[in-house]
Amino acid sequence: MSAPSTATATATPAPQQINVADLELPQLAEVKRQLEEELSHLTSSFAQLKQAQAKFRSCIESAKEVKPENEDKTVLVPLTSSLYVPGKLRDVENVIVDIGTGYYVQKTRAQAVKHYEGKIEYIKTNLDALQETIQKKQDNMSYLVNIIQSKLQHANKRD
């Protein structure tokens, strides 16, 4: 016979909130460094999303340029944003769409435009949320800098 097992639940303690005004200058400097890193990462992510949004807008323009009057004409086909090769348009109703991770599908021009508009809208939603987060972090940074300056002034008055 084995003894019944008893499991003790260990509750994860809730994170403590600390008033930054109570921290010493070296601790404040570390918090400031962490905030700067977070802001740098967030602004970099914001810039990358903006670039992706511009790329999708460019894709929409490319899809709209495929017109029936260009059938069998030699055109420059974009392979990348800076590499174009000559080619002839045989099917002006359909385009090949990069749907990500190296997968391509055939869509009508209207479907391609709708696909890329959806991507742009999704990125816009993320950009809006990211902008709000960046603003909050910048506000936190301003508050932190004010506290550091206040503590430095107070320390200089004692000397």
TrEMBL record:
It comes from the Eukaryota. This is Prefoldin-domain-containing protein. It comes from Russula earlei. The lineage of its organism: Eukaryota, Fungi, Dikarya, Basidiomycota, Agaricomycotina.
